[in-house]
Structures are given as C-alpha cells and as structure tokens.
Amino acid sequence: MSDFSSRRGKGGLGRGLNALLGDVAQDERDTGEKGAARGAVRMIPVSSIAPHPEQPRRHFDEAALDELAASIAQRGVIQPIIVRPHGHDFQIVAGERRWRAAQRARLHEVPVVVRDYSDSETLQIALLENIQRQDLNAIEEARAYQRLLDEFGHTQEELARAVHKSRSHVANLLRLLDLPPEVQAQVVEGKLAMGHARALVGAADPVALADQVLSQGLSVRQTEKLASHDKHGAPTTRGGSPRPAQAAPAGAGSADIEALERQLADLLGLRVSIVFNDDGRGSLTLDYSSLEQLDMVCQRLSGERI
C-alpha cells in the first residue's frame, strides 16, 4: 500500500495527512514556553478570524454550541484555535466550533496558534479534522471523503487509516452520494439514518421508498427488505406502490443480527461481530486495526469528545 507521506495526484502533499493532523494536535496541546518553541500561543481578536469557506461542516448543532459556549464563558477557550495568515487577518484551519462558541460567549479574544499552511494543506486538514474529531452527518462525511479522493488522489485505504475507520465504512459512505439529492437532504436533516439511506442505494425509486420509510416509521431491517423487493420487482398494493415491509418477529434470526452488525459498524467505523444465543446471552466483538482505533472506541465508550 502506498503511504500518505508520498506525493499523490495533482494536489498531493509532500508529507502525509497523518503528519499534518499530528501537527494540529500537538499545537493544541502546546502552551507556554513549549508552545513558543513551535509557534507561540497568542491572543487575537475574535473579529480578526474567519472560517474556512470550504470546510465540510455545514450544520452546527445549536444546543451543542450553546453548551460549549457556556463552558467557554466559565473556563475560557482551553485548546487554541489553529489559524493561518489570510490577508490582513487570519483563517481557521482547525477549531471552528470553538470560534463560534467563543462568539456566543461574547469573548473579545481567543488563543490561537498561527501556522503557514498552504491552500492544499489547509483544505485537507479542514476536511480530515472534521471527519476525525467531529460528528459530521453521513452525507457531509461522504462529501469530504469524495473531495479527498477527487482532488488529492488519495485511496480509500489511505483515508480509512488517516481517520481510524474501516475501509468498508468509507466505501459505504461514498455510496450514499449515489442517492438522489432529496434523499441526501433527508439524511443531512437527520430524518433518515445512515442505515436507512444505505439500504436505499440502488433501489428503483429511492425517493418514494424514503417517503414510505418516514411515513411508516420503518426500521433499518424493514427498509432493507422493502428496498430488496423494489430492486427485484416487489409485490405491490392495488395502487401500484410496494407493500409495506412487515416487522421482524422478536428474537428473529441471523438476518436481524446481521442488520444490527451493519448498523453498529456504520456508527463506529469498525467491523462488528455479534454472537446471539437462544437464552438471550451473547457477545459483541469489535475488530480494530490500530491503537488509534482502540483509543477512539475507548473515548466514545467513556463519553469523551474525540
């Protein structure tokens, strides 16, 4: 496999994205004299900072921003925002949520580290920093992956390693971009979960099926059955629309377990195995391929933000 540190494609970097993200993480930890040695942490006016116009996150959770703003009002901005010179002011490389929350907390200045990243480096960090550390919706994450593939020539395997997720997770997300815009919008708005959307990929009429899923409150498993019927010629009602999928009985077999495995795999970006016994007991196994992936799982289980 090729390494992220090799120059790839027209927009490839001379060093790897993992290295760039490592720089960002180190800058956010460095303060005082140690910070000054790498690029001093300093205070600049909030009004002198602008967000990156092409960062993947378009939707910010208002309640989460209010919660962060309340914390910042009490304790200040603990981690510095990474910026780069932009005209007479500065542009955000990493930390837009903190900047937005600082505005809500009515801070006049925030701590920053200024780095001289190129346009290419800034865009790639903006994309990957959001994927790795924020809860993007599935469509935003898929679009970020697609940009990294199209504009910088990276492979799915390289992206998966950089964000500590499985290659199948990356591939499944990219398939969501085949859905019609109307269905993608429902995912962005939180009306459809990723599992529902993935089941609709390749259906003859995903828009109609998505509306049926929402109106009937169908589960992912029911959606998969409905989409499968749609692909292969579903039995229909007299009105010509597909028959609604029937709910799976309690204690259903391997098909429902496999559906649950896929849902958890989509959520965690790891391969998931479930062993289910007749007496209700069983085991849940998560397969990780690096210490970074293990750390990510531990942080999620402990409730820490990544």
Automatic annotation (TrEMBL):
Compositional bias segments (type: Basic and acidic residues): 26-36, 222-233
Domain ParB-like N-terminal: 42-131
One Pfam family it belongs to: ParB_N
Record-linked SUPFAM superfamilies: ParB/Sulfiredoxin (SSF110849)
Keyword DNA-binding: yes
Keywords: Chromosome partition, DNA-binding
Bias kind Low complexity: ranges: 238-254
Similarity comment: Belongs to the ParB family.
Protein name: ParB family chromosome partitioning protein
